[in-house]
Amino acid sequence: MKFDTPAGPNPIDKGRVIGVAHDRIDGPAKVTGTAAYAYERHDAAPNAAYGWIVGSAIAKGRIAAMDLTAAEASPGVLGIVTHANAGKLSKGNMNTAHLLGGPQIEHYEQALALVVADTFENARAAAALVRIDYAPEDGKFDLAAERLNGVIPPQGFGGPADTKAGDFDGAFAKAAVKVEQTYTTPDQSHAMMEPHASIAAWNGDKLTLWTSNQMIAWSVGDMAKTLGIPKENIRFVSPYIGGGFGSKLFLRADALLAALGARQVGQPVKVAIARPQIPNNTTHRPATIQRIRIGADKDGVIDAIAHEVWSGDLPGGGAETAAQQTRLLYRGENRMTAHRLVTLNLPEGNAMRAPGEAVGLLALEVAMDELAEACGVDPVELRIRNDVQFDPEAGPQRPFSSRKLVECLRAGADRFGWQRRNPKPGQVRDGRWLVGMGMASAFRNNLTEKSGARIGVDGSGKVIVETDMTDIGTGSYTIIAQTAAEMLGVDLDQVTVRLGDSRFPVSAGSGGQWGANSSTAGVYAAAMALRAKLAEKAGYAAEQAQFEDGLVRMGNQSQTLASLAGAQGLWAEDSMEYGDLDKKYAQATFGAHFCEVGVDMDTAEVRIRRMGGAFAAGRILNPKSARSQVIGAMTMGVGAALMEALDVDTRFGFFVNHDMAEYQVPVHADIPHQDVLFVDELDDKSSPMKAKGVGELGICGAGAAVANAIYNATGIRLRDYPLTIDKLLKAQAA
To answer: 539 to each of 299, 452, 543, 545, 625, how far by Cα in Å?
Structure first.
């Protein structure tokens, strides 16, 4: 099915199941321990051996010699995979570094060997006996030191590296009010509950991987390329994923090394990347340096805006596209954005929790707060004055498909009690606490991806949906079941959903905030095809047939789904493809964050007192799970603002705090109250579901609201994230 014209009235609009809050249908399996996670697939591979990864102890250089003698003689060892015996390997299209290094070493903790043994303990003990002599080379590990060597990166998901409209320099020079500041964000690590883990088994030349992966089809393709075998010979199975946040979008070392280990020892092998290896072995969010300049009139109306970003990655990598929201969020006839990429020999930088906008808004929304203060305008009112209903770079000929930023700002402010805020910093006290409020806009591009599904009705009238879509804890099972139930007129408990298997039709996968809208649209397409088959079998006109209560009706006639499906069942398969509506209309999601903090007058300890947000993201498919996603994202925003940072050893090129003891993330007790409001919206130009993504919107702007609240509480403006106690104390003493 092709979506190339705005959606009119359709079966989803009934809203009997879609748009209604439902418990997650996968919940019971998860809380009872019966959900099948990759490393625990004892049913699929009861005789699996264990692999332990040996990572590089240098960041750049070569292996001079590798001695496996002691490791091979260690108890229980079945084999050791290295570059010397793994056979010819290529590199996947979406991998920046090779997943198995050697003899060349590209980054610290790059996998150089896999020790396979009969038990986990034996594999780990033997891995400690692998002796590697290195020939180190000088590397580059400091973004600030290398900033001037940045180059224009290739175009990526964020569009072109640079954009320009009007005459920014001239307009900025003449502006009545100017803001010009530099903001920095650190490297950050994923911290999902389930580590990267896989079990691999070969049956002749056929490979099966039970793995933790967000994008099945992408990774099947990259595994096929890496091993040099046909895609048809590879099966990925990933029905449950314990979090990914972007780190599991691509093929990682656990999957490849499990496959190589299983091929070498002739039996299934399971591999998990150990928690302390994850930050340096997998991917991370790269650090940024961001320069923002805004010129406005005395009333705060923007005429000139510029956002320049520097970030780093390995050779062949990409930039953190942190200026992309600045291209679309606020008015200004004269504008420019620019990204520069620095070559660094740190581990691979890549997608993490709303890449681009999440870190870009940490800077832009603080700059907007600074502009509001300079103009003497309330921060909410400033943003309303600079609202624009079309792409400000392209002009009125490219309007937004829907844009309810102003509604979010007003509703969120009213709900939060923003009118009680004292605009003068450092004036509100509660005992020893300085209390302040801050806010920020939320923005995330709306992306859609082609997505397919197979849907059927069996002889009992139950509905089955199959798609390789994944559920990374976000509720995919439930919204897909809701879509099928709505389309075929059955109750939710009459639907069985099967996900995460490469034998199923290719879906959008989980990433980029496109998963929910795109995957349910794929189910919609398949369901429309099945409705047509059922109507034809009943002798009804497809466009007149009504599906409700397990029946197909036309006029005063009806037949049951079960009778039409028959003993063999009836199936249909289709996918949703997208035309050029996203070229004709700018598509994005919007919101407004509000935060109240307390800052201890003596210790500078920061406590979040409450957070609130209002968000517009098209039709909300399941308000209960959507709220959970948003409050989780807001929590990640607090982490980015106050505590999350990978500390780089710029001498040796690795992340020092590479475990959960030293890498800090927020917990429930850090944020006692979070409030979420969804502003009613249908976007008929996004998909037949009239929905948009919401999962990553909640992190975008949340950290800036925290930073702005700290300023309102203390009068201290910090522009170097995270906003830790030492930085506050230093500024306090200055």
So the answer is: 66, 27, 12, 10, 39
* 407 is annotated as an active-site residue: no
Among residues 179, 166, 208, 249, which one has the least CA distance to residue 514?
A: 249
**By three-state DSSP, how is residue 732 classified?**
helix
Instruction: Please give the sequence-ordered ranges of beta strands (E in DSSP) within 137-263, or none if there are none.
Output: 163-165, 177-185, 188-189, 197-203, 206-211, 234-237
What is the identity of the amino acid at 473?
Answer: G
**Which phi and psi (to 5°) does residue 125 adopt?**
-65, -40
Kindly tell me the sign of the dihedral angle through the C-alpha atoms of 348, 349, 350, 354.
positive
Do 208 and 220 form a contact (C-beta atoms < 8 A)? no
163-165 β-sheet, strand order: 163-165, 334-343, 302-313, 288-296, 177-185
- Buried b / exposed e along 581-607 (16+ C-beta atoms within 10 A): bbeebbbbbbbbbbbbbbbebeebebe
91 exposure class (CB count in 10 Å sphere: 0-12, 13-18, 19+): middle
What does the mean pLDDT of the chain come to? 97
Amino acid identity at 593? H
Q: What gap in Å lies between CA 355 and CA 150, rounded to an integer? A: 19
Chain CA centroid to CA 732, Å: 36
CA 358 from centroid of its chain's CA atoms: 10
In the prediction, which pLDDT does 231 show? 98
Beta-bridge partners for 427: none
* 3-class SS string, 504-541: CCCCCCCCCCCHHHHHHHHHHHHHHHHHHHHHHHHCCC
pLDDT at 155 over 90: no
Under DSSP, is residue 398 helix (H, G, I), strand (E, B) or coil? coil
Locate 647 and state its tokens.
């500390």
Residues 6 or more apart whose CB falls under 8 angstroms from that of 590 comprise 403, 404, 405, 408, 441, 442, 443, 615, 616, 617, 697
User: 3-class DSSP state for residue 374?
Assistant: helix
Measured in residues, the chain has a length of: 734
pLDDT at 498 over 90: yes
Instruction: Please give the pLDDT value at position 157.
Output: 77
- Residue 293's nearest CA partner among 392, 182, 387 is 182
Residue 553 has phi, psi (to 5 degrees) of -115, 150
Task: Write out the two tokens for 117.
Answer: 């043994």
Exactly one of 109, 370, 373, 696 is catalytic; name it.
696
DSSP, res 153: P
Q: How confident is the model at residue 158 (pLDDT cuts 50, 70, 90)?
A: confident
Burial of 203 (0-12, 13-18, 19+ CB in 10 A): exposed
Q: Please state the pTM of the whole predicted model.
A: 0.97
Write the CB contacts of 348 (distance below 8 Å, at least 6 apart in sequence): 95, 96, 97, 107, 282, 283, 284, 313, 314, 317
Q: Phi, psi (5° rounding) for residue 312?
A: -130, 160
Rounded-to-integer distance, Cα 682 and Cα 691, Å? 6
